[in-house]
Write a structure and sequence with these properties.
The protein is built from six helices and no strands. It has 186 residues and is mainly α. The chain has a single domain, classed as Four Helix Bundle (Hemerythrin (Met), subunit A) (Up-down Bundle), CATH 1.20.120. Helix 1 runs antiparallel to helix 2 and helix 3 packs antiparallel against helix 4.
């Protein structure tokens, strides 16, 4: 066990805490859930930084880090879908969750072929993740009855994250397309 892996496990352990706090009936629950999600985002950045800086990258960390990220984002979006209860919110959330499932499956399949690096995380993926984190934190901070400018800015961030999500998925699929085609012919 090293510090980066401990941070990743901490992020996974934050998920049930996040869910419980989301449903607690107290006035600061919006701020508390946004803070927990923000803390998860910071530990995501920090564990990657420390793994590189301290040269503590491990196979366990390489496996757990993306799992922790996808679980936290999917759980947060599922809770927000319930909170906002509207098709215009559900669509970008499902796009984001669906893309994460598709790309995870693609990466696993490419790893079996020994070509995992052709679908490695890109700079666009990091921008997409940042847009998701900003949108989710902002949407966690406000109640669904709030429809002011802060709400609309966060909704624009969510839609931007969904567009970046689709764009990055197309890039990954394009990179994997030769292998997908050759496997289909076999």
């Amino acid at each position: 066990m090293n510090i980066p892996n401990a941070l990743t496990l901490f992020r996974i352990m934050l998920i049930p805490v996040f869910v419980v706090v989301f449903y607690l009936p107290f006035s600061l629950s919006y701020v508390a859930t946004a803070a927990i999600f923000g803390l998860a985002g910071i530990t995501d950045w920090l564990d990657g930084y420390l793994a590189r800086k301290l040269e503590q990258s491990t196979p366990l960390g390489a496996f757990l880090d993306p799992v922790a990220d996808k679980l936290m984002v999917a759980v947060a979006l599922a809770l927000l879908i319930e909170r906002y209860d509207a098709w215009w919110f559900t669509i970008p959330a499902i796009v984001i969750i669906g893309r994460e499932i598709v790309i995870s499956a693609l990466r696993e399949w490419m790893a079996e072929l020994g070509k995992r690096t052709s679908v490695a995380v890109s700079y666009l993926g990091k921008i997409k993740t940042t847009a998701q984190i900003v949108a989710i934190i902002g949407l966690l901070l406000i109640s669904p009855e709030h429809d002011g400018p802060f709400y609309f800015v966060n909704l624009v961030c969510l839609y931007s994250a969904a567009v970046l999500t689709l764009w990055s998925m197309l890039i990954y699929l394009h990179a994997a397309w030769p292998d997908l085609r050759s496997s289909a012919k076999s």
